[in-house]
Design a protein that fits this description.
This protein has 417 residues and is of the alpha+beta class. The protein is globular, with a radius of gyration of 25 Å. The strands form 6 sheets. It has a 6-stranded mixed sheet with strand order 11-20-19-18-14-17. The protein has a 4-stranded antiparallel sheet with strand order 1-8-6-3, with no helix packed on it. It has a 4-stranded antiparallel sheet with strand order 5-4-2-7, with no helix packed on it. It is built from 9 helices and 20 strands.
Length: 417
């Protein structure tokens, strides 16, 4: 019997994904674990591997947005018959976790919502008014979550999904819509204006930055004398074999931050409604600028890696981020983030929190500045660091102690041993 290929849930909260292209054609032989198609989610575009071996008998969804759990293809024996209409039985199982979290939703209402269908990639010509099922507005779980975060009443929105179902884009549109203005005479659009459609990643960035702005945050700054840290980095570069990634200042920062996080575990934390989650290992995210937008891949267990190993891990995730080849797993589990703009000549800046993480470290360029040493004015390469903290999780004194430890490790790397 042919195996149904269903769209997988690649991360918590994932409701749907967009099939970009198939890497196999109907009739091709497929091995288990072999890349089958490219899927674009809110965070990454990645290749999805086949979970069964055989012949790709039928592609049910050639491309476009698909909800989690929907059958998108069939794999089986050559010549095997497949159903004319793919089964949707997997949809309920894939969405039960998120549906169970919806406030005030009864079992029949959840079942009705699950059967409402996917959020269509193309809106109907005439958006239907949002319908109600048992007195409850029809909306996707993601749309309900965004509406709760933004304080938007779903009852006042018009859904563009199937049967008037409210989808995430409807809520986002309502959140950014300007207040009604008095009627004025229509004016012609100025020439030369280019409107760039929002990508899934850009929408995710906008939503997460808005969430971060709502967090009660504070910032503290310190400057570190980078003389010995830069000397250490130069020694390591000289010892790096040809073809291997050369350690950078970011790698040194990652190492000393990881060790400082284990000394000040209250900073190696994430906020949740159930309580503050304190982590035993430093999984550090590195902010990477790409053509698609800002992405923060995570390097796990940084405290266990030496600098050459961190350099290799950093080079790998940065390259894959810029090539659009990150996997969902590369973006999950972070406990702390570093954003370094020193290579752009930025002296100092404030980074926005990466919720639910408790802190993010913004790093500027190392610049020669006059400083006082033993009663004399000398010139030293100084680097300013700014730590942004979630005040719900971290108090000022705890943040200051952590940043002081990072400063001490940079000024005397031997203290980190």
């Amino acid at each position: 019997m042919a195996t149904e290929v269903k769209l997988p849930r690649l991360g918590q909260g994932m409701e749907s994904g967009t099939i970009v292209r198939w890497l196999k054609s109907e009739g091709d032989t497929v091995e288990k674990g072999e890349p089958l198609y490219e899927l674009d989610t809110e965070k990454v575009t990645q290749e999805v591997e086949a979970e069964a071996a055989g012949v790709l008998l039928k592609i049910a969804v050639p491309e476009g947005e698909v909800e989690v759990g929907r059958t998108i293809a069939f794999i089986g024996e050559e010549g095997e018959e497949v159903a004319a209409e793919p089964s949707q039985n997997g949809k309920a199982a894939a969405k039960v976790e998120d549906d169970a979290q919806e406030e005030g939703s009864s079992g029949p209402a959840r079942e009705a919502e699950r059967e409402a269908g996917r959020e269509a990639s193309a809106a109907p010509d005439e958006p239907a008014p949002s319908t109600r099922d048992g007195g409850r507005v029809k909306a996707s779980p993601l749309a309900r979550r965004i509406a709760r975060e933004r304080g938007i009443d779903l009852a006042g929105l018009t859904g563009t999904g199937p049967e008037g179902r409210i989808v995430a884009e409807d809520v986002e549109r309502a959140a950014t819509a300007p207040a009604p203005a008095p009627a004025v005479t229509a004016a012609a659009q100025p020439e030369g204006i280019e409107i760039q459609p929002l990508s899934s990643l850009r929408k995710t960035i906008a939503r997460r930055l808005t969430q971060a702005w709502e967090v009660p945050a504070f910032q503290i700054s310190m400057s570190a004398d980078m003389t010995r840290a830069l000397a250490l980095r130069q020694r390591l570069v000289e010892q790096t074999k040809e073809g291997q990634p050369k350690p950078t200042v970011t790698d040194v920062l990652t190492k000393v931050s990881a060790l400082a996080l284990l000394r000040h575990r209250a900073v190696n934390a994430r906020w949740s409604d159930e309580g503050v989650e304190i982590y035993p290992t430093a999984n550090i995210g590195i902010a990477v600028a790409t053509a698609r937008g800002l992405i923060v891949p995570v390097i796990p267990s940084c405290e266990r890696r030496n600098l050459p190993e961190l350099a290799a891990a950093r080079a790998d995730v940065v390259q894959r981020a810029q090539q659009g080849k990150l996997q969902q797993a590369d973006l999950e589990g972070g406990t702390f983030t570093i954003s370094n703009l020193g290579m752009y000549g930025v002296e100092q800046f404030i980074a926005v929190l990466n919720p639910p993480q408790a802190a993010i470290l913004a790093v500027g360029a190392s610049q020669e500045r006059p400083v006082a040493r033993d009663g004399e004015i000398v010139v030293r390469p100084m680097m300013t660091m700014t730590l942004t903290c979630d005040h719900r999780t971290i108090d000022g004194a705890v943040a200051a102690d952590f940043l002081q430890t990072v400063k001490d490790f940079l000024e005397e790397p031997g203290l980190a041993l």
